[in-house]
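The data layer described in this paper is built around a simple, fixed record for each protein. Because each token names a local backbone shape, the row as a whole describes the fold. We quote a single record here, exactly as it is kept in our systems:

***
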Amino acid sequence: MEDILRVAARLGAERELDSVRMADVAAEAGVSLATLYRYYPTKHQLFAALMLEYAADLGPGHAPKQDDPVEAVAEMMTDACRSMLARPLLGRAMIVSVNAVRAESAATRFDLRERILGVAGIDAPTVDDLQLTGIVEQAAYGILSWAVMGELTSDEAEASMRRACRLLLAPWRDAN
């Protein structure tokens, strides 16, 4: 499956989503088309899986150490934004695909809350902490959606991401 995702990421970075063919992904990954469809029944599920892999790489081990939990989260989310927008076609394919998969099934979750809490150093989150992280996740998704659709420049998206984290997570600073 790793080869399939690697090939899909490369093709998604080179082409518009509509131009990425599942047959090309299978051939370049060295698997049969039947195998590809067994793991990823649709192209949207394939690119949504890439988004999950991308999100899994975020977290305490991938963010610079910060004493301030708000700045730690802001830095992680800004780095994620910068990384995703470095390959705009792939970023757009992942966002569009996540939307399509969410429309198909309410059970699909792309949850960054654990990663946000980990970067912030919060081991025993309160209900308020969980709500704040959910709002940060929603804001980040909106900012990324606007950016990959061309409504924000990369610089505007990064500044918006940082500001959203600082504003939304201000209660964490007040608690310390």
The two ends are 43 Å apart (CA to CA).
